Every structure is written in C-alpha cells, then in structure tokens.
Amino acid sequence: MDEVIIVAAIFIGLPWVILHYLTKWKTAATLTNDDEALLEELYQLARRLNERMDTVERLVASDNPEFKPSRLHSARHEEDTPLSEFDRLLAERGDKRK
C-alpha cells in the first residue's frame, strides 16, 4: 500500500503541484483591464503634471531673467518621442475597442 501512495504522489501529485504553480505564475504576469486602466490614468496624470511643470518654469523664467529652465528646451524634445508613440498606441487600442 505504501508503494501505491508513493507512486501516486510522484506521478500525480508532483506534476499537479508544478502545473498549478506554473499556471498561477503565468496569469499573475499578465495585465488585467483594471491594471491597464490604472496605467492609462497614471499616464494622463503624468502628462498633465509635465505640462504644469513647463508652465511653472515659463512663468518663473518670465519673472526672473536669471532663471534658466533646463526642462523646457533640452529634455522636452527627447521626452516627446516615446510619449507620442504611447499616445499613438493608446489611440489604436481605443479604436479597436469600439
């Protein structure tokens, strides 16, 4: 009787445990609709904050001629390329949902 339990544990129990945790691992690695919505909301918030920061730097630069806004000219164009690509992907995804 002990041999049957050992063989069942090796050939049935062990693969079941391994496959169970593999399935859990694969489903945990995917984004849910809630995760995508949260990421999109955070992205929009980051864009608005970035625009506000640009506005604040412009206002400070207009009031203080010695202020040198480092974000406005040098980093802004480098940031726009990935953000434009992300905007394009969001627009495509929105078209597919409709």
UniProtKB/TrEMBL annotation:
Highest taxon of source: Bacteria
InterPro entries: Phageshock_PspB
Membrane-traversing stretches: 6-23
Protein keywords: Membrane, Transmembrane, Transmembrane helix
One GO term (biological process): regulation of DNA-templated transcription
One Pfam family it belongs to: PspB
Signal peptide annotation: none
NCBIfam families xref list: phageshock_pspB (TIGR02976)
Designated name of the protein: Envelope stress response membrane protein PspB
Origin species: Altericroceibacterium endophyticum
